[in-house]
Amino acid sequence: MVAVLNVARYIINYSNEKGYSISNLKLQKLLYFVQAYYLSFTESHNPCFEEEIEAWDFGPVVPSVYHEFKSFGGSDIPPVTNYYSIDSEDGIWSVKKVHFNEDCIDECDKELISSVVDKFAPYSASELVSLTHSQAPWRNAYQPESNNVITKDAIREYFYERSEKKSR
Length: 168
Known about the structure:
The protein is α+β, with helices and mostly antiparallel strands. Helix content is about 50%, strand content about 15%. The chain has helices at about 5-20, 25-40, 65-70, 105-120, 125-135, 135-140, 150-165; strands spanning about 55, 60, 80-90, 90-100, 150. The strands form two sheets. The protein has a three-stranded antiparallel sheet with strand order 2-1-5. Strand 1 and strand 2 form a beta hairpin. Helix 2 (about 25-40) packs across helix 5 (about 125-135) and helix 2 (about 25-40) crosses helix 7. The two termini are about 30 Å apart. The model has no long low-confidence stretch (mean pLDDT about 90).
């Protein structure tokens, strides 16, 4: 598994390289679809990242990623070359600047993540919100002002069922 913030940074950089728009809202939906592809279409059916996805008003959201990039509002997020890491050692907080190196994601994972981004790049953030709102994992988890978790099992079952129906 890959840390979700590294997956998000990779998606942002890949999107910028390809000339795709990538707002925080769109990034959240892409993370949801990346997780869905890992859970449903890979041989192992293992998640891409451990962090939970929650059902927010505008669709699926990974809270830590949302908070990391919320300062961009509805604007496109520029490439990530560096980020700040906060550590606590012996009760003392320290902040350090870290260079993002996409080698923290193996080539196989990069290919799958990139293919998901390519597939959904033509959709606007609002179209992706509508799409996720029409799907059972978000619909079943969503309750206003609750931010319920969309379980990995719910995502896996929903997308795996659809892939099985298509292959028949």
